[in-house]
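Board work, copied verbatim: Aryl-phospho-beta-d-glucosidase
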Amino acid sequence: MKNVPADFLWGGATAANQFEGGFDQGGKGLSIADVMPGGKQRMQLIHDAAFDFELHEQYTYPNHEGIDFYHRYKEDIALFKEMGFKTFRMSIAWSRIFPNGDEMEPNEEGLAFYDRVIDELIAQEIEPLVTISHYELPRHLAIAYGGWRDRRLVTFFERYSRVLFERYQGKVKYWLTFNEINGAQFMPMLSLGVALQNEENHLQTTYQGLHHQLVASSLATKAAREIDPSMQIGCMLIAAPVYPYSSNPADVQVALDEERMMNYFCGDVHVRGEYPAFAKRFFVENGIELKQEETDAAILKEYTVDFFSLSYYMSRTEKADKTTDMTAGNIMNGVKNPYLKASDWGWEIDPGGLRIILNKLYDRYQKPLFIVENGLGAYDKVEADGAIHDEYRIDYLKAHLQAMVEAMEDGVEVMGYTSWGCIDLVSASTGEYSKRYGFIYVDKQDDGSGTLERSRKDSFFWYQEVIATNGQALYKDSVSTRS
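↓ predict structure ↓
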C-alpha cells in the first residue's frame, strides 16, 4: 500500500468547446473551435493556408452540440458527485463572455451560465478548477487580428481574465491560464488561432504569438493576485519524456534538444520567469527575433505561477536519422518505440513515462504538480443489457495512477489528478464522438444520431472506489466494477 495525501484532488477534466454545446445560445459568439469540421480530416483542413474560419455545408460541426452540457450540467455534475469527485476541471468559453473578444463589456448571459455551473459544483462539494483559454479563441480575433500574432490580444486576454477573477473570487481558487500552451509549437491553429500563410516565416509567427501568450499569462497572474491573493494560478503544458532511440550520442542529443523545447521552454518562462539559454540559441539559429516591449521581461520575472499542471498521454522517442517508422499522438510526432504498444489512434502507451516526467519536472522546478489530463481514447461497445465493459480503460488508468503514486513516493509533490474526458465528449484532434475517454457513456455517434442519454461504464464504478479509498484500491488484486 502507498500513501496518498488526504487532501489529494481526485476528479475529471473537460473543455467547454468539446462538450458544452449551446454554441449560439446565451449571446455566445463563434470561436475557432466552432468552425473546425468534424472527422479525421480536421487537422489537415485547419492547417491549410486557405482555411477561412467559415462554416461550410459539406462539413459537420459536432462541437455545436457537444454533449449538451449547456442544458444538462446538473445531471452531469450529479454523476461526478456520485463518483466522488473532489475537483472538476472545466474551461470557460471566451466567446461566451466576450462574443467577439475585443468588447469593453462582458456578456452577462454568459457569466450567468457559469454562475450556475460553479454554484452547482460548490453545492455538490466539488472544487472548480478553471481553464481560462482552452483552444477556443473567439473567431473574430482570428479573422480581424490574425490571432495571437497581434499584441493587442494581450490586452483583450487580461481584460477577460480580470472579469472572471472579479466575478468568481471566493468561489474558484484554482485557475489555469492557457491549456497546453506549448502546443503552439506543434499546432498553432488550435493554440494561437493562427492560420499560417505559405509566404510567412512560420517559426517567427509561432514564437511571437507564443511570447504574447506568455506575457498575457503573467499579466493574468498579476491580476489574480491583485483581486484575490488566495487564488492559485497554474500553467498547463503537454508533458512527455523524450527518449533517445539508442545510446548513439547523436540520438541522445536530439532527444535532449526536443525535450528541452517541449517540456522546459514554456515551463522555464512560467516558473523561472525568463527564457532559457537553449531557447535563445534556438531563436538565433532559426532567424527568430521576438518583438518585446520594455516591460515584458520584468512582467515575466515577477508574476510566475504557483503550480505546474500538465497533460500526459504518451512519451516520445527521437533519433537523428528520421527514416525509422514514425508514430503520432497528442499533436506531436516521434519515432516508434519498439517497447511500447499503442492505442486505436496510434498513441503509444507508456505508464512508466509519467513517473519519469513527474520526477524531471519536479527536480527542475520544485513546484507542486497537478496532472490535469490523462486518459485513453478508445472505441466502446454497448452490450445488449446496456453495460460497457471497458477493462482496457481501467487497465490504462490503473497503471498510470500507480506510476503517479510511485513518483509521489520518490518525493514529487502532486496536488491532484483529473482524468481527461471524464464524460464522453468530442475529440479535439479528430472531431469524433467515437474516440471515447469517459467513465460516463454518452449516446451520441459520429453521424449525429443518438439520444444523448448518459450511462455508467465499468470504469465509473472502478474510479469511484479508487477515490473512496484515496488510491488504496489501486493495490487490490481486483476492484469491483458494478454496484
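Residues 9-475 form a domain with the TIM Barrel fold (CATH 3.20.20.80).
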